[in-house]
């Protein structure tokens, strides 16, 4: 039942949408606990999924991501993460770190903002999850509207000469005279 593409798409879309309206951070330090990851999860990830996720990280989230920290990493996952680092561009690869203990995480993320389960002073994971569920419920109509949006290519203008800007093409491909 686990689908990495769906999980990442929903997470990216919903988190990004809420952050557009409510977040003022200049960057993210992402901390990922892989304690409960099973080999079955890993076998469902194929190289094209890694490349797609890498594309999103490199081109969509790259400026927001300051660091990504993994801990409680099983041996098999450690090898896959190291492989992924080589597939990503150099700048993104340099932002990914593997840690062997929670003590190492404390050096990069203050205890004050870590959940109680990780020795921090913040609310418990259960409380934080409940807060996030309430927040996503607030945005439910927005998420549904975005999910049902579609592009009507019939009304899209041709990519011909633009009198105002003086170029051929669209924002993806410009042909200058």
TrEMBL record:
Residues 1-126 form the CRAL-TRIO domain. One of its GO terms (cellular component) is membrane. This is CRAL-TRIO domain-containing protein. InterPro entries: CRAL-TRIO_dom, CRAL-TRIO_dom_sf. PANTHER family: ALPHA-TOCOPHEROL TRANSFER PROTEIN-RELATED, GH10083P-RELATED. It comes from Diabrotica balteata. It comes from the Eukaryota. Transmembrane segments: none annotated. One of its GO terms (molecular function) is phosphatidylinositol bisphosphate binding. CDD domains: SEC14. Pfam families: CRAL_TRIO.
């Amino acid at each position: 039942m686990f689908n990495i593409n769906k999980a990442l798409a929903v997470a990216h879309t919903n988190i990004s949408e809420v952050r557009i309206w409510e977040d003022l951070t200049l960057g993210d330090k992402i901390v990922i606990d892989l304690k409960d990851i099973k080999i079955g999860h890993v076998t469902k990830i194929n190289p094209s999924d890694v490349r797609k996720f890498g594309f999103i990280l490199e081109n969509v989230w790259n400026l927001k991501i300051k660091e990504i920290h993994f801990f409680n990493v099983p041996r098999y996952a450690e090898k896959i993460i190291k492989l992924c680092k080589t597939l990503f561009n150099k700048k993104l690869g340099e932002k990914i770190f593997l840690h062997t203990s929670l003590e190492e995480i404390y050096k990069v993320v203050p205890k004050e903002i870590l959940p109680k389960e990780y020795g921090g002073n913040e609310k418990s994971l259960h409380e934080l999850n409940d807060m996030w569920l309430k927040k996503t419920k607030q945005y439910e109509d927005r998420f549904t509207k975005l999910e049902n949006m579609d592009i009507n290519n019939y009304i899209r203008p041709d990519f011909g000469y633009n009198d105002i800007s003086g170029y051929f093409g669209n924002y993806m491909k410009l042909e200058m005279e």
